[in-house]
Amino acid sequence: MLVLFFIILFHGSLTLASDPDPVFDFCLPNETSAGSSHSSCKNSSLARVEDFIFSGIKFPGKFNGSGFSSTAVNSKVFPGLNTLGMSLVRADFDVGGVNVPHFHPRATEVAVVLEGKVYSGFVDTNNQIFAKVIEKGEVMVFPRGLVHFQMNVGEIPATIIGSFDSQNPGLMKIPTAVFGSGIEEELLEKAFGLSPKELAKLKKRHAPH
Ligand SMILES: *[C@@H]1O[C@H](CO)[C@@H](O)[C@H](O)[C@H]1NC(C)=O
Ligand SMILES: *[C@@H]1O[C@H](CO)[C@@H](O)[C@H](O)[C@H]1NC(C)=O
Ligand SMILES: *[C@@H]1O[C@H](CO)[C@@H](O)[C@H](O)[C@H]1NC(C)=O
């Protein structure tokens, strides 16, 4: 029985899905070790300073139709973060640009406004809203799993850096999850009181890309 428990415990530790408490200084994933998402660590003597530097958010991304661009800096794009339980996002907003309501299932986010004036907020599980315009230098926290959103209400482009207490916070955009995921049309029409034409428009707009 005890043996079984330890087998489950140690086997389980390989497939555990929460951010772990690191037991090494760092763990650069060994990409060549068998295909699971939880690869083993590279021998640390092979680590280079470049493994701990990510240069992909020096510049804003391209704005799309919503005047928004974001670049996630998570363990997928920056393996140096692996096992460290943190990550970042850079978000840029054109004037009037919108970050649609979304949530991160695995992390609380602390977002600092680097530039601009941003209407910023979240909704709790009682559907109570907490929203306000915050400015350059101000910080807002979005508690884990709660729906939040932002819009640039200033006269210049805005930039935000969000930091997460997970190496892989996950991102669910409400419009895409609802209208872009392939949920049966009849259900969506009934749930949102939409005509087929209105629904078609929303589906087109929020198709995943
Ligand atoms: C990566 O894993 C493979 C298979 O387990 C091992 O042979 C190899 O030495 C590892 N590479 C490094 C850099 O640790
Ligand atoms: C890591 O590499 C160093 C230097 O090549 C070697 O001495 C050491 O035994 C390796 N450690 C492991 C766990 O493979
Ligand atoms: C613009 O991009 C953001 C983030 O990449 C996305 O959430 C949004 O749905 C996009 N909007 C349009 C209209 O393409």
Automatic annotation (TrEMBL):
Signal peptide (UniProt feature, chain positions): 1-17
Chain sites annotated for binding Mn(2+): 102, 104, 109, 148
Compartment list: Secreted, Extracellular space, Apoplast
Cited Pfam families: Cupin_1 (PF00190)
Annotated GO CC locations: apoplast; plasmodesma
PANTHER family: GERMIN-LIKE PROTEIN SUBFAMILY 3 MEMBER 3
Protein name, entry field: Germin-like protein
Organism of provenance: Cucumis melo var. makuwa
